[in-house]
Amino acid sequence: YRIQRIEQITGRAVAETAAIAEFWLALRARDLLALPHP
User: Fold this and answer.
1) If I label 30, which of 15, 20, 23, 24 is the partner at 20 to 30 A Cα–Cα?
2) Taking a C-beta distance cutoff of 8 angstroms, is the pair 22, 12 a contact?
């Protein structure tokens, strides 16, 4: 269910290699840019 929901929200097919790379890059960027906790 979650993967289908991600595909609906993003308009990307999780089965496509390019989409997986984009998801990974976006999540990695989010982690790197996150503010440190006090």
Assistant:
1) 15
2) yes
